[in-house]
Specification:
Length: 459
């Protein structure tokens, strides 16, 4: 006895009825179709483990049906059958993806053996798919290193929202790992086996960004000689990750709002409306609430993208993760470069932890790579680090009166920021430019140093 679903496709009514009844008596759940049209309609409504298809059908070619099934339902096994024993056609069917090719009249034992092989292979494929999904779920977070409490909370959020359709906004300074978080969400979701498409919105001008996201039709603009499929269509069934979303122009923001709300869009120069099933994750290093207040970002789009916000802390706020990250990068480089470096000296680790990391994880990765390539011994020493990082080797926490060195250094930092704020009449954008930091960094420093309120700061 078998367990599984089968679609029998044959234009001979007597064969459909007799073979269908016989297959059903062996435990299979059997549907029958008289031709290609009926088969395609049944496939649009049901999922089958196996198709048993006659090569010659009144309304089409069984080989064409085989090609469509292998292309659109690769997990479905197909067995072809024919009343004409043509070796060339058998070879063609096997090359096109048929599991087997049977010649009528079909012997019962032969068919049962073929069905057993097909269903066994189907079960193995399903088990492999499930195993891959489980491995992908584990790997999704294993690739992100972090033991700091803030990172543990982020891991909990990822687990909570990964398998939902909710839009996720990942925020944080440049280099904090926003792309890795987006990939982890995708890999821990039910969409893990579908495409993950990443688009760097800030790297493209508006006219090219629209074509990149939505595609275009031939003749839509100069140079558009053929139709182009956009990233949203490529990501159908999976996840699209829109990085640097804060750079989108007002016109693009309108188009994005529509596709986020309705999951519908038109290609550039086209009139046909496409509908997609896509999970959207966005990222920015800007303060979008501030951008809304400044009129640079639509308020309705902000509310639409800010359903779930994952804010990644800068590396300097999770210094205890620096040694873990550095060692991970070192191990990856050892595999790629065959270097004999095994770790860091205590002084080198102290320097890495003391450094402010304005470039965050990306900068740390670059520093480790440089140190591994230029280092001479088994341990990376302070002298192997860039000069601006190495000076931190002597900056171990120390007491200055009743304060740590870190606390003592906050006083001149506060004075400098306050001075520049007042010089720029408390214009935060101008102050950030004058200090050579991005706005997000300035806002967080102001909050930490008690400079959020102008009147309170002057007391």
């Amino acid at each position: 006895m078998f367990a599984g679903s089968l679609l029998l496709v044959d234009d001979d009514r007597q064969i459909r009825e007799s073979m269908g009844e016989w297959l059903g008596s062996h435990g299979l759940d059997v549907d029958a179709a008289a031709g290609c049209g009926d088969a395609l309609e049944a496939l649009s409504r049901h999922t089958y483990d196996l198709l048993l298809v006659d090569v010659r059908l009144q309304d089409g070619d069984g080989m064409a049906l085989l090609e469509q099934v292998r292309r659109n339902r690769p997990d479905c096994q197909v067995v072809m059958m024919t009343g004409y024993g043509e070796p060339e056609q058998a070879v063609e069917a096997m090359r096109a993806g048929a599991l087997d090719y049977l010649t009528k009249p079909i012997i019962g034992d032969e068919l049962l053996m073929c069905l057993q092989k097909a269903l066994t292979q189907q079960q193995v494929m399903q088990e492999n798919t499930q195993l891959k999904r489980e491995l992908d779920k584990r790997a999704g977070l294993d690739n992100i290193v972090g033991a700091h409490p803030q990172m543990n909370r982020i891991f909990e959020v990822i687990d909570s929202v990964a398998d939902t359709r909710a839009t996720v906004l990942v925020t944080g300074e440049s280099g904090t790992g926003k792309s890795m978080i987006a990939r982890a969400i995708h890999r821990r979701s039910g969409r893990a086996g579908k495409p993950f498409i990443e688009v760097a919105c800030g790297a493209l001008p508006e006219n090219l960004l629209e074509s990149e996201l939505f595609g275009h039709v031939a003749g839509a603009f100069t140079g558009a000689t053929t139709d182009k499929v956009g990233k949203f269509k490529q990501a159908d069934g999976g996840t699209i990750f829109l990085d640097e979303i804060g750079t989108a122009s007002p016109a693009m923001q309108v188009k994005l709002l529509r596709v986020l709300q309705e999951l519908q869009f038109e290609q550039v120069g086209g009139s046909k409306t496409f509908e997609v099933d896509v999970r959207v994750i966005l990222a920015t290093n800007e303060d979008l609430a501030e951008a809304v207040a400044d009129g640079r970002f639509r308020q309705d789009l902000y509310y639409r993208v800010n359903v779930i916000n994952i804010e990644l802390p800068p590396l300097r706020e999770r210094r205890t993760d620096v040694p873990l990250l550095a060692q991970r990068f070192l191990e990856e480089l050892r595999e790629d470069t065959s270097r004999s470096v095994v770790g860091f000296s205590d002084e080198a680790l102290a320097a890495l932890e003391a450094y402010a990391w304005p470039g965050n994880i990306r900068e740390l990765q670059n520093v480790v790579e440089r140190s591994v390539l230029l280092g001479k011994g088994e341990l990376i020493l302070p002298g192997d680090l860039p000069r601006e990082v190495a000076v931190g080797a002597s900056f171990r926490p120390a007491r200055v009166g009743q304060r740590t060195l870190k606390e003592a250094l906050e006083e001149p930092e506060r004075a400098i920021i306050l001075e520049v704020l007042e010089a720029n009449n408390w214009n935060r954008n101008a102050t950030a430019d004058a200090l050579g930091v991005n706005r997000t960094t300035l806002y967080k420093k102001m909050k930490r140093l008690g400079l959020e309120d102008r009147e309170e700061a002057g007391r």
